[in-house]
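Ticket reopened. Same input as before:
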Amino acid sequence: MTKSLRNWWGRFLFQGRGIVPSKRLVTILLLLSVSIIILTVVGLDWIWIITFNSLFLLFSLVDLLFSPKKKEMNFTREIPHELERGLQYQVQIKVRNTSDYGCSLTLVDDVPQSFRKTFPIKGKLKKECNFTYDIEAPVRGDYYLRHLYVRYASPLGLWEKQMTIPLEDHVKVIPDLTETRRYLQSAQQFLLYDGEKIRKQKSGVGEFARIRNYVVGDDPRKINWRQTAKLQEVMTNEYEPEHGKYITILIDCGRMMGAELKDGNRLEKSLEAALTVTAAALKNGDYVGVLVFSKDVNVFIPPAKGMDQLQRILQAIYNVKVDATESNYSAVMNYLQTYQKKRSLLLLFSDVHTFLYEESALYYFKRLRQRHLFFMIGIEDDELNTTAKQDTRNVHHTMVKSMAQQQLLFKKREIAKWEKQGLIMVEATEEQLATVAVSYYINLLNEGLL
Amino acid sequence: MRNLFTGKKSWVWLVIFLLVFISISYFLISKQPQDYPNYVSDSPAPMGTKAIYTYLEQEYNIVDRWTHSPNLLIDNGSNQLLVMIEPIFIPDAKDMSEYIDFMENGNTIMLFQNNPHGMFDISTVPIATMQENTTKLNNNQGLEYEAFLPSYERLLTEEKDRVILSDMEGVVALERNYGDGTLIVANTPIWMTNEHILEEDHLEIIQTVFHHAGGEWGSILFDEYSHGTGNKPTVNTLYPQWILVLGFQLLLLTIFYIWNQGKRFGPIVTPREETVRFSNERIKALAAWYQRGKRYQDSLIIQADYLRIVMQEKWGISYRKDWEDITNNINQRSERDPKELKSFINGVSTVLTKPTITKQEYLLWSRKIDQLRKEVEDE
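Engineering reply: fixed in the latest deploy. New output:
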């Protein structure tokens, strides 16, 4: 096909450009048709019928001349380049029209398919105009917006011109950081949910941090009398647990982490909790490293401190996907033994069940325990718990129920067994995962175990 | 693949493939003869009449085909011969009167038709038996011809008609005057076909007929109009105009409506696959396995075990003790009738020690265990 022919073909129907008759045109044509048919009954020649039709179409096409040319319109898009999963964001499209004619615009943006959005957007355009729409991204990952699809109608609204404007944007959908932000805003409030207070000023624990004004509720034994005398104000010593500890967060993204929860899957929740713990630890001045693994180690970020590390970690793990393979704990252990020589807290986000079935890995962990502190946190399986409490209905149901009970029994026994050897495993509900993880971390530091 | 189909090489391949296809299709398709309708003057098929047409064309050089409506015939003046061989339908009244006008203007129509009843007021009479073989025909001068005559009809003559040919059954060809012109009718178009024209005395018969028609024509026309080229009833005559206009406008509307609705606006959307993994796949599989193996006993033991664990957690009744030993402990916590409870505990401990149990027993004891479990859990 020659180029011009292809151009025509594309213009007609199958590509993003060209002209489209509007609903109004079709309606008017319908009215015209009805009147022509009525006139035919009275007596009207074919020549007149064709003349009427073609005259109408010709005049409607004249209407097209009074709308802006394609080159006279200029579009820009403003979109946040990092979207948090499940939150609503606003996207703005700025339109500039340099022609003398106004028009009514219809826009459809090339937003990735998985996003929640409402298209098309409609509006009137004079000279300059801003259009906004809301998007919400339910799936993490990297996305590209490549085009903007525009239709605009002529003044009488009989025809619409359509064009596709190349407009590229790269969007990252990162985990939902609401919990992290809540922690950073007010750690106390965040942990109250769990029923625990941060005992930063636990007496006798940690090192001397600074001297500050005495406030009601402080331990009177900690009053620094020398400073009080000097400044004529009651001053008190403040102690804080030691900082500069190493924390390695292990995130499992194997097969079982893909199990669906009320909102998102296990991996989503684990990532969000991991980021909250990271933020908490970094704020405390600890070193945080992250390791994501399934069959092999997918991502490893060596420990570092400072709030930059949070960004670094976020950028490295925002696009982690659930792998279809079984997770290989031993491989991670080997890896850790070579790369994490300093004593650290190993915080493993995984599925407790899968973990318990890996006998060999558990022995590895036991050995690792000699050097590091280990804590594993999983998400409670709601499905399993409710199944175990079912009534007896028929044989199949009862079988399933008994199997669920068997799994629960197995889990209880195994957890008890390994806890004796110093491998602590906890299951939390999906809503409380982050709080449980953070409060465990704070407790550990307060106790000075690390 | 990419190398094969890009650049100059691909064009070479394309041309080669095309040539191969064309040659194959030439050999496959060209063997089949083309289909022609019967009695058409450009058909070389056995039932065509190209032979006589070509012969006349070479002889007289004034032969032509007529594919237009008969109202244009008169414009060519007089002294014309119109040869109609087996028209596939009888023209409507308008066309018919135009044919007659044409004849009255001093022209001749020569009609060969198996059953010419209805054409130009000619009437026919049916005969009882058709001659399978050749028959003898007589002309009005007493000459005899051998001819093939596969027709059930014979012509009825009127007063002024002149018989050209007849056989024992009746008139086979006749001549009738219309104004200044004449009409010649014969009931056997098969004489004119390529297949039969040279058989028997057909050629002589045709010559006789042509002879009757005169001889000095301005032009000889073979009527193809009556063979369907353009003279079929048009949609215009079949349907009232308003229906046609309705159809036309509907077509126009549909085009615009589809254009309005069908033009893609926005990105191309492809169906997206979503997979969801449920966490209960393990217990489902295990349950199916146990059920297939009819391991009701094992399942019951697990349920009893679970009950004991729950009791240990909630009521502090030791998991290690035997069922019989904990009757009192349960009695203290449970609101059930002690006798009923005792029978339950006795039952459980015996059922659990049985080597196999039936499905009914399994369900019964599962229910009983459930009752107690509910009681423990609800506290």
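Chain A has four domains: 3-50, 70-174, 201-240, 246-447. Chain A has a mean pLDDT of 85. Please confirm and we'll close it.
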